[in-house]
Amino acid sequence: MAQRLDAREAGFAQAFAALLSAKREVSEDVDQAVRAIIDDVIARGDDALIDYTRRFDHLDLRPEDLRVRDEEIDAAEAQCSRETLDALALAKERIEIYHRAQRPQDSMSTDSLGVTLGWRWTALESVGLYVPGGRASYPSSVLMNAVPAKVAGVPRVVMVVPTPRGETNPLVLAAARLAGVDEIFRIGGAQAVAALAYGTASVAPVSKIVGPGNAYVAAAKRRVFGQVGIDMIAGPSEVLVLADAHANPDWVAADLLAQAEHDPVAQSILVTDSPALADAVEAAVRRQLETLPKAEIAGASWRDYGAIILVESLRDAIPLVDRLAPEHLEIETQDPEALAAKVRNAGSIFLGSHTPEAIGDYVGGPNHVLPTARSARFSSGLGVLDFMKRTSILKCDPGALRALGPAAIALGRSEGLEGHARSVAIRLNL
Amino acid sequence: MAQRLDAREAGFAQAFAALLSAKREVSEDVDQAVRAIIDDVIARGDDALIDYTRRFDHLDLRPEDLRVRDEEIDAAEAQCSRETLDALALAKERIEIYHRAQRPQDSMSTDSLGVTLGWRWTALESVGLYVPGGRASYPSSVLMNAVPAKVAGVPRVVMVVPTPRGETNPLVLAAARLAGVDEIFRIGGAQAVAALAYGTASVAPVSKIVGPGNAYVAAAKRRVFGQVGIDMIAGPSEVLVLADAHANPDWVAADLLAQAEHDPVAQSILVTDSPALADAVEAAVRRQLETLPKAEIAGASWRDYGAIILVESLRDAIPLVDRLAPEHLEIETQDPEALAAKVRNAGSIFLGSHTPEAIGDYVGGPNHVLPTARSARFSSGLGVLDFMKRTSILKCDPGALRALGPAAIALGRSEGLEGHARSVAIRLNL
User: Fold this and answer.
1) Binding site residue list of A
2) What's one GO BP annotation on this UniProt entry (chains A, B) (predicted)?
């Protein structure tokens, strides 16, 4: 079972530091291969896409087959159950409402010197959304990536999704249509990332690429960064449940396992001031694992990376939470708001016993693309701002230039940039 | 002199595409060396810092000398002219006011289903600011990086700056104090980046590293990314001046040269609908180069990367501007606001003839750390948001969970994540 740490015992600091620095990512060295694929797509365009799709996805395509046709999406929708489509529609609506509130304000004003200044936000021209094929092909992730882009006002959202042996997840296509995705291509891997970054005859290039993928996709995104923007590189997922003696151990156990079933390297941690709860949760995890379909994955995750940390008081837990900076933080205590207010580093917080993290994965409204592997110390979940950029604006009238010019000249000269100074001085006859 | 392109001539599309794809960055392959330095700092801490500082900066330090002392900053300030210190203070005040307006709003509300949701912004715990030594050691950049961090509320801002042979730029120390920098260390290169990311006995680690540097610093930042956050990797700087027949050719030429004097790989471009202005600017550039102290650098930049592009009408210029996505865009035309409103991609816009870009470099208020090398298509200049992160918050009451639960269960099952479904179902006795 998961390891136990006790903050009241000697050696805790070291054990906690070891937990913090445990490497959960398997880093495959695929950079060589990825570089060759990208260069080939730049050189040969669609032909390279078709060759790699034959090799990796065992699928023969003509250039005109690269793009998924509307009739195929119609057919996919028809395959989905009404119940699931309704659930997707509810999710889409709630995600849209939450993200609309994130739309930023422009600012423009004129100060007492006569300087008009501020900024303007604009949407990116185009965005590419990578959706993995196979096991990790989640319709909910399509919504979480595409809806904020559309709320931001991105005119062209392009989805790529590999369809190994022609297999498509119908719900992924349905989610794409629901979210307003404009183009869908049945390509994946580093070749799809290269096509989005550099363009081919069939795939026009985009300004930014988002979405999760395997080691090849991640390496390709790192490599094309600069040519286009990219989102964060997602690591394995984690949850930290902070619970007191009043929490329901079965519910807590279910939440820990919901995280653990994602991946053998997912991490579920319980922090509690109640030794009785710790024992009860541990027993409940064991019991629930017996009937969980993904027991093998979840069991491995809990055994290898799970942890139960006992603290003297819940207040002592806050510095531990901040150092772990969990992607998901559930607070199942008597006064969750008071504890939440003290936390600095967490990707998302789920308050109270009736907010299992799975609600946030699907239909809560907030984004489920969140900073992993302690990066909540310095980054945020995906949002509307990731699909917009800010242009600063400055205008001096002649009086404003007279007021500010001498200081600019002085600073330019102090930095040895006489050309800077002269570009101001020439306008002031100085 | 700079190349001329004419949008009305055959072959323009190709020539413009070549201008867009011209590689201006010299990519040194320093990754091997940087990896070794970082590993050594992780292993040996201060000892490694001291060794590398001896080797690269020709400076012998004891551990207690790594940090710059308050008395040294006092002494540095005393060396600066009153005029320059006053100019710095004006710059700091204006940068602070501009960035205060960028502080984001938290959001929290309860919807009709009983779901309480929103988000909270918090400042990063600590930030490291890299300041180059030597020629590119700019006090204005200290302000542009440190002031937004302090406006964001970062409690601990740490500056590193190499001092080759013990040489310090007094204005850099004065600017650091003015901006509220909390700690200054006289270290540079990959070893300084490693110290900020991983910590040593003398340098506590930070959450994010910002600021420009040479190829070693850039490679080190890429390598520690993940362990800490980093800002964008800055490329060579550029300006695009959009001007009509009414613009003053001497002023335009001065602005083009102010950009060009930064770096032989800086890029200055004039786009105009007036052949007469094009000729007059070209002549003025030649004339002004004769007396410019940095004529060698500016002349090389103008010769190798400068361009004058003639367009039929100013409206035709907009798609070219958007494809170039310039770091700095000056609009010196009769109605600059109307043209600015049509631009999607630019890091910053300077409106009218009385707003030379140098004002924005120093005392305008907006940040001068801006997206280079066409990255304004997908990214923004430095701002307060770069020093904060957003935590999403979700709370369901029992009724809200009953309302949303079934949809979450359906979606969890549709994705093969039964554990997700069960974490909801167990609370609803489903």
Assistant:
1) 130, 191, 214, 237, 259, 262, 328, 361, 415, 420
2) L-histidine biosynthetic process
Average model confidence (pLDDT) across chain B:
95
Which pLDDT does position B430 carry in this prediction? Answer: 86
Let me know if A36 is exposed, middle or buried by CB neighbors in 10 A (0-12, 13-18, 19+). Answer: exposed
**Is pLDDT of A328 > 90?**
yes
Of A224, A209, A261, give the one whose Cα is nearest residue A37: A224
- Residue B407 counted as domain residue: no
pLDDT digits 0-9 by tens, A206-250: 999 999 998 899 999 988 988 999 998 777 889 999 999 999 999
Task: Give me the helices (H) in A225-354, please.
Answer: 249-260, 275-289, 295-305, 314-324, 336-342
**What is the tens place of the pLDDT at every residue in A48-63?**
999 999 999 999 999 9
Dihedrals phi, psi of B228, to nearest 5 degrees:
-135, 165
Local confidence band at A124 (pLDDT 50, 70, 90 cut-offs): very high
Beta carbons within 10 angstroms of residue A81's beta carbon = 11
- The pLDDT score that the predictor gives to residue A26 is 61
B207 found inside a domain: yes
Q: What is the pLDDT of residues A354-401, one digit of tens each?
A: 999 999 999 999 999 999 989 999 999 999 999 999 999 999 999 999
Q: Tell if the CB–CB gap between B411 and A226 is shorter than 8 Å.
A: no
Q: What interface predicted TM-score (ipTM) does this complex get?
A: 0.96
SS3 A119: strand
Catalytic residue among B261, B327, B330, B357: B327
From the list A346, A366, A426, which residue is nearest B251 (CB)? A426
| H or E element, residue B13 | helix B12-21
Same domain, B269 and B133: no
Give B361-377 as a DSSP string.
HHTSSS-S----TTGGG
DSSP per-residue codes, A130-162:
E---GGG--HHHHHHHHHHHHHHT-SEEEEE--
Contact between B293 and A422 using a beta-carbon 8 Å cutoff: no
For residues A301 and A268, state if they share a domain: yes
Q: Is position B99 within any domain?
A: yes
Which residue from A87, A97, A138 is facing B410, i.e. has the nearest CB? A87
Tell me: do A73 and A188 sit in the same domain: yes
Residue A136 shares a structural domain with residue A220: yes
**CA–CA separation, A304 and B136 (whole Å):** 49
From chain A, the residues in CB contact with B412 under 8 A are 358, 361-362
Closest CA to B427 of B407, B403, B412, B405: B405
Query: Does residue A24 register a pLDDT over 90?
Result: no
- Separation between Cα atoms, residue A297 and residue A403, nearest integer Å: 67
Domain region containing B363: 235-377
DSSP state of A375: G
In this structure, what token pair is assigned to residue A78? 């028809």
Note whether B396 contacts A257, CB cutoff 8 Å: no
Task: Name the active-site residue from A328, A330, A332, A357.
Answer: A328
Inside any domain, residue A7: no
Same domain, B280 and B158: no
CATH of residue B55: 3.40.50.1980
pLDDT at A258 exceeding the cut of 80: yes
Last residue of a domain, one of B358, B377, B396: B377
How many helices and strands (H and E) does chain B possess? Answer: 17, 14
Q: Do residues B54 and B202 both lie within one domain? A: yes
Q: Nearest CA of chain A to the CA of B337: how many Å? A: 10
**How many other β-carbons are positioned within 10 Å of the β-carbon of residue A126?**
22
The vertex-A57 CA angle with A54 and A60, nearest 5°, equals 35
What's the number of domains chain A is made of? Answer: 2
Task: Among A140-144, A280-284, B229-233, B299-303, name the one with the lowest average pLDDT.
Answer: B229-233
Domain ends where: B207, B230, B253?
A: B230
